[in-house]
Specification:
The structure holds two protein chains of two kinds. Chain A is of the alpha+beta class. Chain A has helices at 18-30, 47-50, 58-84, 101-123, 156-165, and strands at residues 9-15, 34-39, 143-149, 170-174. Chain A is built from five helices and four strands; from the N terminus they run E-H-E-H-H-H-E-H-E. Classes of the chains: A alpha+beta, B mainly alpha.
């Protein structure tokens, strides 16, 4: 997440088609503009590459959470069945390792899935009473590209020229974003 | 910080209404092929998709919906009466006896769990295989999964006799000396498998729903709905960073749900396969059950989708192409089921074990032969009709066949359970099993619960995944 403490102004370009958005974003980035974020009604594939967004590390979270579930599941079953109160069930060994696999698997999946989605919501700051505003029509059919005007050298005319080459329907500048 | 950008509206307009080129559809698309048909008919734009799906939510429900809901509620009421009768009087209200200690209830349980599998198959497995056509049906198929698993879960809980103590199957420190649960029992695995399956399916479904809830939030005119969607959409604003993480986690969940769904019905089959009853004690059970589950689930999805597309006018979204694809999955899984039936017969007869041989002969020629042949006919034979393109593209034919498959798959579970039990090793204890009216009431009630919840889902949430459909709009369109 970029640090916006110092940033003052933003430029938002509105598009109607995802191809224009991708091309516009990629060109803006190559032209030296700083892309703050892109707002789209559906996941636009190729967008991450166009704005050079690194792949998410959430897969690692899911993996570690799964590993935690695996260890928890096995420990729980071995400890309760073989150590805390060993019960003879049908003459099976107290530590019936192969029979513990199904529950271990289920707990691995459960931990991994729930923690991954919990971290996703936390990372995106999605929660029940979020007061975030949304660009108009962005959940419908508008694609919005927001540039950060990081310093005085920002050339708004250049940005407008660039985006109109890519069929932007509107370019808006605002300074109350921060 | 990041959130503050969205909190304010842009001021000063620099340049509105730039000159632009007219928009045409002539753009090369990576999946364009002359051999493929468009997934969504009618040359929809993104805005039209939003409008088409969202307009199903706001207006007052029509007469058809109310009539369907009333019928479902009556069925549900029957189930409530049957449940109250069972719980207050006891399991003696069922037709079980010493020989057949497990019958109708577990049949319904396995049937409903199986129905659920198609939803996960569509949402997770087809997602991993990049099958774009899933986008039109995944939302309702997943809702079907959740509801079916709820219906399934009720049966073992009611069968416990004291359902309010169902939490005893959880391994928690308790006052009974901390007597732990028996982790070696497939019935306990079942509990873990089904609760995990339900949780992960619910989370997966909800995650897919979040962006669409935001769309509904931004469009609905009803204050109440807006409040609901606002809370449930968690402040979704379509940011690409969010989308990127979202898709990562969505893929992770799909990758988790894929082995999960296979494990669930495998574990359900372990309830039978780990016992020593001839007809149950068989290594073929896990794949046989999983294929059967996907088969029955697809039949149910097709039945529901045919109704939904007709009643909600979604013909452009759920096209004959979608139904044909589902028919192909049903054909494959139905053939696997048919192969499993034949393999069971062969292995039983070839085993040299008199009890196994007896079970096979008793199943197909004994007093429950009618049920066996309904099962065999409806599953192994009727599904073969999908080889004919005429039939798998004819919607009335699909509807009839899918209902026959549903019936056949219910009978499959009945046959497996009852015919294996009712004539056991000792001829003096042979018995017949007939369900009582209470048990039939429970089955009827579960259908009532299923359709009541499905109808409420249709009115409350976007039936089709709006954001995913927008992503495939230009699929195979020149």
């Amino acid at each position: 997440m970029p640090n916006l403490e110092s940033a003052k102004r933003f430029t938002a370009a509105f598009f109607e088609r995802e191809d224009d958005l991708i091309a516009g974003a990629a060109e803006a980035r190559l032209a030296g503009f700083e892309v703050y974020d892109v707002y789209t009604p559906f996941p636009v594939h190729g967008m991450d590459r166009a704005v050079a967004l690194p792949p998410s590390r959430l897969t690692w979270i899911a993996f570690l959470a799964g590993a935690l579930g695996l260890v928890f599941g096995l420990t729980l079953q071995v400890w309760t069945s073989a150590y805390d109160w060993p019960l003879n069930v049908g003459g099976k060994p107290f530590n019936s390792f192969p029979l513990f696999i199904p529950v271990t698997f289920e707990l691995t999946v459960l931990f991994s899935g729930l923690i991954a989605i919990g971290v996703l919501f936390a990372r995106n700051r999605m929660w029940l009473f979020s007061k975030r505003r949304v660009f108009e029509r962005v959940t419908d059919d508008r694609f919005v590209l927001v540039l950060k005007q990081s310093d005085a050298s920002f050339d708004i005319d250049k940005a407008v020229r660039l985006f109109s080459r890519h069929n932007a329907i509107n370019v808006v500048e605002g300074d109350q974003f921060v | 910080m990041a959130a503050s950008l969205e909190q304010t509206k842009p001021t000063g307009i620099v340049n509105s209404e730039l000159p632009r080129k007219p928009i045409t559809f002539e753009i090369a698309h990576p999946v364009y092929s002359k051999l493929r048909n468009p997934l969504i008919l009618g040359h929809k734009s993104n805005a039209e998709v939003t409008r088409d799906i969202c307009q199903l939510l706001d207006p007052k429900p029509g007469r058809g919906w109310w009539i369907s809901l009333s019928i479902s509620l009556v069925l549900l009421a029957v189930g409530v009466v049957a449940t109250v009768h069972t719980v207050t009087t006891g399991i003696g209200t069922w037709g079980l006896n010493r020989t057949v200690g497990w019958a109708f209830d577990i049949t319904n349980f396995v049937f409903w769990i199986g129905i659920g599998h198609a939803g996960t198959f569509i949402s997770a497995i087809l997602f991993l295989f990049n099958q774009k056509w899933r986008t039109s049906v995944n939302r309702s198929a997943e809702a079907m999964t959740l509801i079916a698993v709820m219906c399934a879960g009720l049966f073992p809980i009611i069968h416990m006799g004291r359902p309010w103590l169902f939490y005893w199957v959880l391994p928690y420190p308790n006052t009974r000396g901390t007597l732990w649960v028996n982790f070696r029992s497939p019935l306990l695995w079942d509990f873990f498998a089904i609760s995990t399956y339900f949780t992960i399916s619910a989370v997966f479904w909800y995650l897919g729903l979040v962006p669409d809830l935001a769309t509904a939030r931004d469009r609905t005119k009803s204050k109440l709905r807006q409040a609901l969607y606002r809370v449930m959409s968690l402040g979704w604003n379509g940011s690409n960073r969010t989308w990127s993480r979202y898709e990562t986690v969505y893929t992770v969940l799909a990758a988790l749900a894929t082995p999960l769904v296979i494990s669930v019905h495998s574990i359900v089959s372990f309830d039978f396969a780990t016992s020593l009853i001839p007809g149950w004690h068989s290594t073929i059970f896990p794949p046989y059950f999983v294929a059967g589950a996907v088969f029955s689930g697809f039949a149910m999805v097709m039945t529901l989708m045919i109704l939904v597309r007709r009643l909600m006018h979604l013909e452009d979204y759920i096209t004959p192409q979608h139904l044909e694809n589902m028919c192909k999955v049903a054909l494959l899984t139905g053939s696997i089921v048919g192969l499993a039936y034949v393999t069971e017969i062969f292995i039983g007869l070839y085993s040299g074990n008199p009890n196994e041989i007896f079970v096979i002969i008793n199943r197909s020629l004994g007093p429950y032969a009618w049920a066996y042949w309904i099962m065999f006919g409806c599953n192994a034979l009727v599904s073969q009709l999908f080889w004919f393109k005429k039939l798998r593209t004819s919607i009335p034919a699909i509807f009839v066949i899918s209902i026959l498959i549903n019936i056949g798959m219910w009978f499959e579970r009945f046959v497996i359970i009852v015919t294996s039990l009712h004539r056991d090793f000792l001829p003096s204890s042979w018995a017949m099993y007939t369900p009582t009216i209470t048990e039939v009431g429970l089955l009827v009630g579960s259908f009532g619960l299923f359709f009541t919840m499905f109808l409420i889902f249709l009115r409350l949430f976007p039936v089709i995944s709006i954001n995913e459909v927008k992503g495939v709009l230009r699929y195979a369109k020149p």
